[in-house]
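Per your request, structure below.
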């Protein structure tokens, strides 16, 4: 079942490695087909990226029961499910410990909008959740949902832990993970030479408008 989604979720998990967002077997991407919302497809636990193929992806129902797949699903499956249950619009979730974004998470510092690329892409800051414990299993997902609420945030920094990003598809969530890491890296580099200052809100709105309404080739 969900063969197309398995291919996309597999391809996007490999994209985490290609973009330097993960080491060894850390990180994971899941996807949900909004036309078949009772299931998600997620990376198997502890399988290396280099040998991963679509048939290795695991299908679980919304309670986390394995419906299809020869492997155990990612240990973060419950975190993904808690967010999917709260946000019916999401079709993709990514979790990484990408270095620069996670360094902000360790300090409990949100990514304020200090550079125009962040204003373009996201139009706002990337917040930090409260600290979440691995047990009970739902705590990480609950911390994310408390911060996310109904807001259309592309991602959150999980305090002391890493990054979760979201989107209408696995590809959109991976794009957000790549962009957040790139922005965090640039901000971190700037911080080596001085104090960062956020752009005023009205400037953030202008950049966001230009990027979303004028930039690129509209079809
Ligand atoms: Zn993690």
């Amino acid at each position: 079942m969900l063969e197309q989604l398995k291919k996309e979720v597999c391809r996007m998990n490999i994209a985490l490695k290609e973009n330097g967002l993960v080491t060894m077997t850390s990180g994971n991407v899941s996807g949900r087909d909004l036309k078949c919302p009772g299931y998600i497809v997620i990376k198997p636990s502890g399988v290396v990226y280099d040998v991963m193929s679509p048939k290795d992806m695991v299908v679980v129902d919304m309670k986390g029961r394995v419906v299809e797949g020869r492997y155990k699903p990612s240990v973060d499956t419950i975190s993904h499910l808690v967010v999917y249950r709260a946000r019916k619009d999401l079709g993709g979730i990514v979790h990484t410990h990408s270095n620069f974004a996670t360094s902000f998470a360790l300090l409990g510092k949100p990514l304020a909008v200090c550079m125009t690329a962040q204003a373009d892409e996201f139009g706002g800051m990337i917040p930090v959740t409260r600290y979440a414990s691995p047990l009970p299993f739902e705590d990480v997902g609950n911390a994310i949902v408390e911060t996310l609420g109904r807001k259309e945030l592309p991602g959150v920094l999980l305090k002391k832990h890493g990054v979760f990003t979201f989107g209408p598809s696995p590809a959109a969530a991976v794009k957000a993970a790549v962009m957040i890491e790139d922005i965090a890296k640039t901000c971190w580099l700037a911080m080596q030479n001085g104090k960062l200052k956020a752009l005023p809100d009205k400037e953030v709105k202008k950049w966001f408008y230009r990027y979303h309404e004028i930039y690129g080739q509209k079809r």
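Residues 170-191 form the longest helix (22 residues).

Regards,
D.
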